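Lay summary

Proteins are chains of building blocks that fold into shapes. Our project writes down both the chain and a compact code for its shape. Here are two examples, one after the other.
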Amino acid sequence: MRTLTLNELDSVSGGASGRDIAMAIGTLSGQFVAGGIGAAAGGVAGGAIYDYGGTAEFGKNRTLS
């Protein structure tokens, strides 16, 4: 299992509060939510991070290497 540091989370989320980050752990789906109060995580697929920020790139899939 890979653990993200706070700096990595900030980088993935773009440093913007209110951003929703969902992370799968290993082959099992779990979630980690970063963002402001009221943020809700979306679906998770193994090995992927989904960025649900309110931008034109809504739902863009970003993977960790």
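And here is the second example, written the same way.
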Amino acid sequence: MAATSLPERRPARGAGRYLLRSLIFLAALVALAAVFQRPLTAAFLTNPYLNGTIAAAFLFGVLYTLKALQEALRDTRAADQAAGVVLKARRHELSLKQVNDTLLDGGGRPVSDFLHKVYRVISHGDAAATLPYLLDSLATRGDDRRALVRYLVGALVLLGLIGTFYGLLLTIAGVRDVIAGLSTDRAADTMALIASFKERLAAPLGGMGTSFSASLFGLMGALALGFMELQLFHAQNDHHAQLEALVVSDLVPLWQPVVTVTAQTETISPRHLAALLQATTDRLERVAATTEYLA
């Protein structure tokens, strides 16, 4: 009866929450763009090629980030299922062979591949030395996934600056042409002079439009994509903490005794146990800190 009284682990919903936040944020951006459709369209048409490049980079970053958030959500659900399988094993509802077949035969899925690596590390008796580095590799893979998003954020800022400087160059050239075209002849018709002045002002005003529109679209796109990258960071962080808790709290106690029994000629030294205990303590502290932050 005691084996059936183990508490259910609450499913992690961080990735779904952050995906929902991103979708709500994008919906708010679309609504805001619809409200200011006319001025935004006019600003976009001042330099459609450069502003179109900015819009294309922003849309690509949004789609990439949404895909990464969906992958994080799928991995979170897979980790929840793995935690449920381990809980059934602790309740003696599943045998160890059934647990291994379920967890390690994932058909190339990221969570199953990671758990397979964890099992190989524990089965070789290198948990204390290798397992911390394996867990740290989760954060490295998360950084690699977000590297493209961070690059696109910087690219949007750079494109906005390029448009700003290009527009300023056009403005300076237009002002120079206006000044050069001013007639100093007193007999010149005043109305003709004003008409010529108005025509020549079109170039510097167009340059200012290019400058301000590129800055607007570039900086706003970078700000929006940066917010989505932040949501992806939190989603991946929660998933990594979830996997660390699963490995340290459940899988190491589940698989470690099997290794001790099968490796009859191998004895565990006190130094090995101390290192494993220290690594386990560090991981539990990180998981507790993450859980407290989410609460």
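What can we say about the second shape? The two ends are 31 Å apart (CA to CA).
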